[in-house]
């Protein structure tokens, strides 16, 4: 019966997953259907606008060219009318002179005849008929204002929808996720010399596979990318995955999106556990500060507000500076590792300690810590969950750390099992912690230069919790970080070569 129950539960789980998958696809179809209707209306409106623009230009051109013809017609008509009027006057005067000359032939008196002949001669000499041009000043030719729109008609007949760029193809094999940066690489399915630029969109998600319509954040956009790859750097890896998609754009239109690609962006994300921290420590999610006023006066207040106050903690993932303004993205303590928070006694005595709220049980992880400049004493390391409430980091066989003491004189040492090894290197502003649980290795680095400070080699027999001690000062924590490439390379070169931790290396049972 138990085996049948398990089989039935597996079937139920499979059906539930399939139903969820189908529902997600139905949501996608409905979303796409609405998109088809809305986009069709948009392109019809744009088509009307473009054709109205063409009609408007043609009407303006027709009116302008018609006016040119009418102006030419008026000019020629005026010139011909003026010439016609002059010729009519000249003809009238010439006919009158001709008639006078004909009558003069009948004059019998020689003296009168000679006088008339001289007058006629003088009038002929001055007559306009002999001074005007008998050639039209303008022709009736209007061919210089004729048009031939055959080529334009062919161009108009060739009007068609713009060629939309095809969807690019993202190559997951060429994409790179490293050092909290993602390089996305894509290519066009065929050469297109009309491409002007690309648009890359991305978003964080905790779902593997195809992006979902519901329960997803909005896409962030990078526009005007000229090449076929782009690197997003300085990312906060506080989600398991990131979705990416890209589309090509020419001068007028953007193409379809590529098939989305999901890349894994997993990194260790944890907060500080204020339910078990020393009462002399003021603890926020990613910041801890020595508080000399802590103690009995605050004990009842803190106990009464442990759960309520957890919603007022500032979240500073992948950020080495403390913000004085609470983040709107708050994380409920009760939803994070409930088996860890509240499951141990509060540190007391001289163990000014706070632990992380997430256990490390496998894999390789990295986080960073920055101390206040005036911090008198602090430790950074890891410990088993059973670290005693009076125990100090590095003074038991269940904890490993490096310790900085700036009281009177500066000392820098690696500590484990109440043994210390002085470190002859400058204390960095930021300390990077690398934990390889399966490989049994805990290394500390200068987070800026990636200089190796110290390495513990052991066999971790229990889950580990990040641990921090601080006195007279404060520590800022940065999580959501990938193991830096430089650290990975240093680990390869240091493995089997480093003897710096030989006096503190042991196998913990």
TrEMBL record:
Which residue ranges does the record assign to the B30.2/SPRY domain? 293-486
Which stretches are tagged as biased composition: Polar residues? 309-337
Tell me which PANTHER family the record gives: E3 UBIQUITIN-PROTEIN LIGASE TRIM36-RELATED, FSD1-LIKE PROTEIN
What are the residue boundaries of the Fibronectin type-III domain, all occurrences included? Answer: 164-268
User: Which intervals hold domain COS?
Assistant: 105-162
One Pfam family for this entry, by name?
SPRY
UniProt keyword annotation of Oxidoreductase present: no
Q: Where is this region: Disordered?
A: 293-343
- According to the UniProt entry, the coiled-coil residues are none
SMART domains xref list:
BBC, SPRY
Q: Which organism is it from?
A: Pelodiscus sinensis (Chinese softshell turtle)
- Keyword annotations for this protein? Coiled coil
Q: What is this protein's record name?
A: Fibronectin type III and SPRY domain containing 1 like
Q: Where is the composition biased (Basic and acidic residues)?
A: 298-308
């Amino acid at each position: 019966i138990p085996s049948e129950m398990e089989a039935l539960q597996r079937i139920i789980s499979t059906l539930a997953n399939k139903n969820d998958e189908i529902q997600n696809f139905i949501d996608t179809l409905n979303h796409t259907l609405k998109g088809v209707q809305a986009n069709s209306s948009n392109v019809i409106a744009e088509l009307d606008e473009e054709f109205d623009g063409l009609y408007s230009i043609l009407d303006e051109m027709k009116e302008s060219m018609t006016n040119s013809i009418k102006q030419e017609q008026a000019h020629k008509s005026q010139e011909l009318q003026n010439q016609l009027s002059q010729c009519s006057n000249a003809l009238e005067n010439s006919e009158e002179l001709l008639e006078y000359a004909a009558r003069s032939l009948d004059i019998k008196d020689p003296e009168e005849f000679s006088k008339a002949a001289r007058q006629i001669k003088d009038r002929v000499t001055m007559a306009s008929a002999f001074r005007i041009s008998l050639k039209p000043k303008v022709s009736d030719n209007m061919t210089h204002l004729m048009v031939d729109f055959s080529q334009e008609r062919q161009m108009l007949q060739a009007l068609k929808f713009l060629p939309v760029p095809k969807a690019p193809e993202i190559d997951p094999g060429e994409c790179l996720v490293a050092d909290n940066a993602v390089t996305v690489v894509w290519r066009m399915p065929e050469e297109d010399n009309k491409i002007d630029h690309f648009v890359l969109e991305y978003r964080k998600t905790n779902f593997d596979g195809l992006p979902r319509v519901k329960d997803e954040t909005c896409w962030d956009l990078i526009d005007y990318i000229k090449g076929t790859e782009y690197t997003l750097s300085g990312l906060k890896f506080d989600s398991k995955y990131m979705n990416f998609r890209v589309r090509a754009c020419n001068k007028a239109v953007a193409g379809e999106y590529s098939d989305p690609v999901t890349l894994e962006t997993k990194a260790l994300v944890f907060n500080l556990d204020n339910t078990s921290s020393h009462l002399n420590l003021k603890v926020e999610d990613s910041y801890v500060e020595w508080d000399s006023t802590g103690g009995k006066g605050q004990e009842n207040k803190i106990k009464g507000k442990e759960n309520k106050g957890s919603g007022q903690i500032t979240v500073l993932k992948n950020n080495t500076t403390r913000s004085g303004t609470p983040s709107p993205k708050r994380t409920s303590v009760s939803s994070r590792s409930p088996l860890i928070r509240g499951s141990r006694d509060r540190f007391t005595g001289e163990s000014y300690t706070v632990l992380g709220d997430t256990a490390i049980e496998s894999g390789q992880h990295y986080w960073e810590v920055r101390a206040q400049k005036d911090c008198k004493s602090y430790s950074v390391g890891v410990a088993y969950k059973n670290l005693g409430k009076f125990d100090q980091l590095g003074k038991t066989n269940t904890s490993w750390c490096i310790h900085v003491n700036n009281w009177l004189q500066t000392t820098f040492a690696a500590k484990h099992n109440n043994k210390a090894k002085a470190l002859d290197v400058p204390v960095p502003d930021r300390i990077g912690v690398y934990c390889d649980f399966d490989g049994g290795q805990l290394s500390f680095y200068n987070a800026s230069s990636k200089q190796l400070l110290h390495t513990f080699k052991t066999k971790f027999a229990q889950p580990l919790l990040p641990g921090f001690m601080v006195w007279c000062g404060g520590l800022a924590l940065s999580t959501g970080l990938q193991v830096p490439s430089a650290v990975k390379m240093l680990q390869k070169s240091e493995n089997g070569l480093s003897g710096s931790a030989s006096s503190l290396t042991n196998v913990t049972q």
